[in-house]
Amino acid sequence: MASQPDNMSRRAFLRGSATLIPTVGLAGGISLTAQADEPAPNLSEYQPVFFGEDEWSFLLAACDRLIPGEHAGSGPGALDTNVPIFLDRQMDSPYGHAERWYMEGPFDLDGSPDLGFQYPYSPREVYQKGIAMTQQYCRQEHGKRFEQLDGDTQDAVLKGLEANDINFASLGERQMQASDFFSHLLENTKEGYLSDPIHGGNKHMAAWKMVGFPGARASYRDWVDQHDVEYPLGPVSLNGERG
Amino acid sequence: MAKQQPRVDAVIVGLGWTGSIMGMELTDAGLNVLALERGADRSNADFAYPKAADELQYGIRHTMMQKPKQSAVTIRRNLDERALPQRKLGAFLPGDGVGGAGAHWTGVLIRPTPTDLQLKSFADQAFEPGVLQDDMQIQDFGVTWDELEPHFTFFENVCGQSGTTGNLRGETQEGGDPFEGPRSEPYPLPALQDTQNTEMFDKAARQLGYHPFPNPSANVSRAWTNPYGMQLGPCNYCGFCSRYGCVNYSKASPQTCILNALKQRSNFAYRTHANVTRVELAADGKTATGVTYIDENGEEVFQPADMVILASYALNNVRLMLNSGIGQMYDPVSRTGTVGRNYAYQIGGGIHMYFDDIEFNPFATAGATGRMFNDFSPGNFDSASHGFIGGAKMHSSQASGTPIKTPLPKDTPSWGQGYKDALQKYYGHHMKLSMTGSVMSYRTNMLDLDPTWKDPYGMPLLRMTFDWKENELKLSRFMRDRLREIADVLKPDHMEESFQLNGDHFKVTSYVSTHNVGGAVMGTDPSNSALNRYLQSWDVHNVFVPGGNAFPQNFQANPTDLIAALTYWSAKKIKEDYLKNPGPLMSRA
Ligand SMILES: Cc1cc2nc3c(=O)[nH]c(=O)nc-3n(C[C@H](O)[C@H](O)[C@H](O)COP(=O)(O)OP(=O)(O)OC[C@H]3O[C@@H](n4cnc5c(N)ncnc54)[C@H](O)[C@@H]3O)c2cc1C
Ligand code: SF4
Questions:
Q1: What pLDDT does A70 receive?
Q2: Residues in domain Glucose-methanol-choline oxidoreductase N-terminal (chain B) (predicted)?
């Protein structure tokens, strides 16, 4: 983080003129420039705020299976792009607290899934309970914690969560199914991978560069009529980082 | 006892599209007008570049939208199912805060056809008795094309509507929609630029003999000054349009088109974080005395007013009427009562097509970008021989290319290296063929009050009973076959379909559209409409209810042009007749 020499020098570099993003014309003739914020932290040095140490080890391992890094094939992975940091920060956002959702009882768990989720948990609780259940399952089934399993076994566990083959009810969790937890984990992992770095993931916009999304440029009047031509410019982030 | 505010001439509940229009019109008439908006204040500055360009915040977390915590809807598919609360948003995304859904809509600004306004009359003449489902409850709007035309034109000028004229005073125009009703004036501005998918769709549709035209747009193609003196700048094709505030003063919204002008008027005021819980009625129940709201400190406040305008979005308008005892609640068994009757929606479907070697650059787009054709709207084709009524807008639109929402073929892995490979392979190589279909009204598609769940202020939640019916599923299948023919011309490397077909039921978890209509419909017969043809409550004459709630059934395109035109139509009647002589504008006989 800030105390690390490589990041210090990087920050000094970023503070220079290099990070002024191209001006974006606004209707009123105003133009805006933005400067890059704090550089993205290194995942290995990050201290999670919400997740406990054990939960964190689970997330690091699971994210690496959900979106594996360069070691598995081309393109950055969830760990290369700080997705776990994104997850940690989301837990403290209105989303994590289910602040905007209707969370009043009664909670009728027998209805059709097409009517939407009915369990009484905010995403924070979904993660806490989901990770605990998964670890309990791994201990029972394999005598190890999830992060200690080999990659193929980890994948099998994740598939078991996805398909509800791992039965949370028999592990003591009766309100939420394994797939409820898995779908949060997967959806949020993709969000962290592909959203603006301002939210903590997609470090240096690596995922955007991989797919060819120009980020927050939001100005293509001169480009829209160029059909079937690859867009030439790299992405820009909300904080003005250029990729 | 509730705190009481000084009386106003008119109180408007909700400051989105209809509330802003009513604010303008009623202040024009010299009234002292107050708008109460439950959400936050929002101005163009809130969306200034680059703030709005944040997919997570707006596209995914719904930051500008109705909070279920404050106002959830419970949903069931039939009278026997237990309705459950929609705990987080899904199928529809109503707005919250100044501007309402009008601040984050897409901006496809399209008129219905003259036939759509008189669908029941059309059905009586085009269908043999017994062909249509007997639980269908379609009706005429009670207002004609000629009556509404000036109001469409005015609102389209307010928005700087961009597109290609198809029918100018009865003369067909090249490149526009030959099936549109006669316009008194051409579109204010030329169409938006085409994108790759638009061009491909256009060619294929023409080859098959259809009549494609540019999606009519409220994302303006050129600088525009509207009748209120508000200025819009040409659209930037920023790619963050549908679900986002505009970074660029280019998307018509209450903010860009009306509110800055309205806020200058000394006889207009508005309060935010003012959540109206009910309309208060006089002892005889025949007039409203004002509204009760909860202010930002959680205190209950009574706001007296001579007139109440419910402009809080179709679903909220119906709920406020039910919670206030305005009119009689609909009963689907005895088919009596009108409030909650004829709730309808929109049916969607499409073919996802993937082309390995074509770059669509989906991020470089305006919300409304695309092409559509109207060859399959009612009266333009023989749907009777296929056993259904209604129609569809057939189109290829590209509302945004934000990456979290990247569509991927279903047979690709949803995680692991295969997922990453698919993202790289398919992002930017996808286009969609879509149909947006009409939905008729039925005996058991309806709104009422939930018996179990309440909002934080103790008021019952709205309960929605809705499912797809046979007529719409037939329509969906017919339109699927037509879209398949277009796909055959375009020959994608890979494609897959998503349509509602036999046996499918309404799902609340994935987005369908925020085109919720009906529930407090307009008409000329108080036994089957909650509002008369001026959007005035039949029962409480100083309550007017502009919004999609007034549609007796839904037509095949986007609702806001019609919602706005009806609002201006209602306002005109208020100004010309109601204010001079407050009372029922139509007699119940
Ligand atoms: C993502 C999206 C895309 C869309 N795209 C299109 C499109 O392309 N074309 C089209 O025609 N339509 C589109 N729509 C629909 C369009 O936004 C609505 O038809 C239109 O905004 C309706 O206007 P309204 O005034 O009825 O409601 P709104 O504009 O939503 O305004 C209602 C206001 O009332 C407030 N309110 C609600 N309840 C209360 C209460 N109890 N007390 C106080 N205030 C309250 C709300 O907070 C809101 O601000 C889209 C909608 C969405 C969500
Ligand atoms: S696409 Fe155009 S109208 Fe839509 S938000 Fe961007 S600049 Fe505004």
A1: 83
A2: 232-342
* Residue of B55, B56, B67 best to disrupt the A interface, most CBs of A under 10 A: B56
Ligand 1 pocket test: which of B22, B60, B104, B106 has the largest number of ligand atoms within 8 Å of its C-beta?
A: B106
Instruction: For residue range B140-159, list pLDDT tens digits in order.
Output: 999 999 999 999 999 999 99
Strand bridging mode B300-310 / B543-544: parallel
**How many whole angstroms separate alpha carbon B49 and alpha carbon B247?**
5
Closest CA to B219 of B260, B259, B247, B184: B247
- Give A199's contacts in chain B (Cβ within 8 Å): 56
Cβ <8 Å between B424 and A103: no
pLDDT per position as a tens digit, B311-333? 999 999 999 999 999 999 999 99
Nearest residue to B372 (alpha-carbon basis) of B437, B439, B440, B468: B437
Residue B322 identity: L
Contacts of A93 in chain B (CB under 8 A): 61
Closest atom of ligand 1 to B243 CA is: 1
pLDDT digits 0-9 by tens, A135-172: 999 999 999 999 999 999 999 999 999 999 999 999 99
CA-to-CA distance for A187 and A172, rounded, in angstroms? 25
Residues 6+ apart with CB under 8 A from A9: none
Q: Give me the active site residues of B, please.
A: 515
Closest chain B residue by Cα to residue A116: B509
Measure the CA–CA gap between B378 and B38, rounded to whole angstroms: 38
User: In chain A, what residues touch B77 (CB-CB under 8 Å)?
Assistant: 112, 114
What residues contact A232, with CB distance under 8 A and at least 6 apart? none
How far is it, in rounded angstroms, from Cα A18 to Cα A23?
Answer: 13
Catalogue all structural domains in chain B, each as residue range(s) with its CATH number: 3-578 (3.50.50.60)
pLDDT attached to residue A73: 74
Which of the four pLDDT bands, split at 50, 70 and 90, describes residue B1?
A: low
Ligand located closest to B238 CA = 2
- DSSP letters, B200-231, are HHHHHHHHTT---EEPPBSB-SS-EE-TTS-E
- The DSSP line for B111-161 is ---HHHHTHHHHHHHHS-TTSS-TTB-----SS-HHHHHHHHHHHHHHHT-
Q: Ligand 2: distance of its center to the CA of B97 in Å?
A: 20
Give the start-to-end residue ranges of the domains of chain A.
5-11+49-213
Q: How far apart are CA A144 and CA A127, in angstroms?
A: 20
pTM for the model stands at 0.95
Mean pLDDT for the stretch of residues A170-177: 96
Q: Which residues contact B218 (CB under 8 A, 6 or more apart)?
A: B107, B108, B109, B159, B160, B161, B162, B251, B252, B368
Q: What is the pLDDT of residues A76-130, one digit of tens each?
A: 999 999 999 999 999 999 999 999 999 999 999 999 999 999 999 999 999 999 9
Integer-rounded Cα Rg, in Å, for chain A is 21
Mean pLDDT of A180-196: 98
Q: Check residue B260 and give its pLDDT.
A: 95
